[in-house]
């Protein structure tokens, strides 16, 4: 098994050795995928190219107006094949929701899990337009023994020796939530290639791995789905032998628009003394955001910020702001969100093998000049 | 000088120590900027989010329909202030041209210059629409002693202790080329924020540092511009004391659409045995591409590829293709472009301190399965 060519091309999951720098493969992922530059927190919706992107394999090339039949099969009484053009002709629904990669923050963990090396910026918010999945499932007429719904993307590759199409499932109760969409538009335009053109799944509140792109198949099953991305990847575990818990909804997180201006290379923020309006956004996938606190002394003391209006959709990020007087010297700003379930952000992240659901507070060193 | 806060926030140019892994700052740049995933070579024009982006400081936040006055001053008889809305009302010109970052390939150099750690994918091609710069310069009526034109962007930051707006110049003869544009649209839509909304410079054939984004000032001068991005950065030098040569036009380069499918983590390409159509694009900023050769044996032997039609614009990439029969085992594909001036790509890159204009051939390891 371990000598076959596909296993050789791949490799096991691992964490970095102490002091081990970023590998060429991690850099290759960092060069092609991208986070949201944090100044883009100023945009209510994140334009393509600023919204984070994480693609496991290749971005499928789909020419405009290609037919794109999507099959609905498995435990349904009326299997369907629906073309995207037909979906576009139905009444459209739009939800503004925040997506975050489950691996956001991974590169800060020690030891570092070897994978896409996100710092803190794997996030974005968009208006996603499409048709509710549950209408399509109702049309297909679910069997009474339906337990999960499996979604298959057109992206194809290898992961830890397993050749696969990207595939994830949702429990039936989640798949039937009214805001789960088969989406064909982002911010009012056809999906960009890297966001799943021509069709993707949108599961508001869940981490990005659930948002299956280039969607071509929907299969209803009566057993828990045990595909690679469900049973092997995207689980919170301490050791490879630990079955772990599945990664599901987004933990609360707040981010700060870094104030002032950056140094190109160090990325240190530089400000002039005086009043500065700190601002940013916060979100959670489990309960609405109820408070955001800011520290200007590296997490020693915290001040409540003013929250913006409650967003229309519970899984859309919420604005916050706080005036701050910058004084000459070095400061470390930090920001922490809490949701209506009382979940908040840790100052130090609990480690897990895959580096998932890491919502440790963002810390932003700032140098304030003398004048 | 070296103790002031702005110098402390910054730091000198340096190269990595032997064995030194990627720094947090290099990773921060890699997470926010992004290359073009190589499978996007299949697109004639590169959509936003796939086209490479390199931003020195923050992306300015410019709300839609903000007034954006651009000043034209210095050695002109008729200083102007033109609003972008006024530029949009003029007859529009569109050029399809290829952009590449001057630092493309930097992360492969040994020792590695510490900066944005590009591998090979910092490229993209777009339709840029705007008005010819020379029409605006003619309107401003150049003084006879005009030597260079300096372009100022709205992006502001620090670099090696120097606080600055991003600023670059062109020699007058280059600025007066008919295809140099003040561009307000990319691929038929308003510029995305990260590509310079609402106005940028487009200098076909030149590396990306010349394509000043968020353009707000055009100043005609009678001396060689000695700003940071001209006299300190973007020079090809062996040592800090070496004045070096300026980085200008793009060296020839060809890239290959990686065949088959990838392993997520190693990025190794996997193919099945049999015929494969190798294809890709090639470009140069000094003369049209005249040949592209492919090696399937790690640069030991080369085969001429079939070039696609000559592009409409000389600085737009050109397609190439070559059939290849994959046989079980490991292969290293490579591709090399040559332009009409006989310039080609080295197998090993000559090193320089900034890691600029590195056009060493792309090598793509491929594992072919047994069946």
TrEMBL record, chains A, B:
GO terms for molecular function: heme binding; molybdenum ion binding; molybdopterin cofactor binding; sulfite oxidase activity. GO terms for biological process: sulfur compound metabolic process. Residues 1-20 are annotated as: Disordered. Gene3D superfamilies: 2.60.40.650, Oxidoreductase, molybdopterin-binding domain. Pfam families: Mo-co_dimer, Oxidored_molyb. Residues 273-366 form the Moybdenum cofactor oxidoreductase dimerisation domain. This is Sulfite oxidase. It comes from Yinghuangia soli. The lineage of its organism: Bacteria, Bacillati, Actinomycetota, Actinomycetes, Kitasatosporales.
């Amino acid at each position: 098994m371990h000598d076959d060519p596909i296993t050789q091309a791949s490799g096991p999951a691992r964490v970095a050795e102490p002091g081990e720098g970023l590998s060429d493969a991690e850099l290759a992922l960092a060069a092609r995928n991208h986070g949201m530059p944090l100044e883009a927190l100023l945009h209510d919706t994140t334009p393509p190219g600023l919204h984070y992107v994480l693609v496991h394999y290749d971005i499928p090339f789909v020419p405009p107006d290609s037919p794109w039949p999507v099959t609905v099969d498995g435990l349904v009484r009326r299997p369907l094949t629906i073309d995207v053009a037909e979906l576009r002709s139905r009444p459209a629904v739009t939800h503004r929701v925040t997506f975050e990669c489950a691996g956001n923050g991974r590169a800060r963990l020690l030891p570092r899990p070897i994978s896409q090396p996100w710092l803190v910026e794997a996030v974005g918010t968009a208006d996603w337009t499409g048709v509710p999945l549950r209408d399509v499932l109702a049309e297909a007429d679910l069997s009474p023994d339906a337990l999960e719904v499996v979604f298959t993307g057109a992206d194809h590759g290898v992961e830890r020796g397993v050749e696969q199409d990207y595939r994830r499932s949702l429990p039936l109760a989640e798949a039937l939530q009214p805001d789960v969409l088969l989406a064909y538009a982002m911010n009012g335009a056809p999906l960009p290639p890297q966001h799943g053109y021509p069709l993707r799944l949108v599961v508001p509140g869940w981490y990005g791995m659930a948002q299956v792109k280039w969607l071509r198949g929907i299969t209803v099953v009566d057993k828990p789905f045990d595909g690679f991305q469900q049973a092997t990847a995207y689980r919170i575990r301490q050791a490879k032998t630990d079955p772990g818990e599945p990664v599901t909804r987004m933990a609360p997180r707040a981010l700060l628009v870094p104030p002032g201006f950056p140094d190109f290379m160090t990325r240190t923020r530089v400000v002039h003394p005086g009043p500065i309006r700190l601002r940013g956004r916060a979100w959670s996938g489990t309960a609405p955001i109820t408070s955001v606190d800011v520290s200007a002394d590296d997490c020693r003391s915290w001040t409540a910020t003013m929250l913006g209006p409650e967003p229309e959709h519970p899984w859309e990020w919420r604005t916050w702001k706080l005036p701050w007087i910058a004084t000459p010297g070095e400061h470390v700003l930090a920001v922490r969100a809490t949701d209506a379930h009382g979940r908040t952000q840790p100052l130090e992240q609990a480690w897990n093998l895959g580096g998932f659901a890491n919502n440790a507070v963002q810390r932003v060193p700032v140098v304030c000049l003398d004048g």
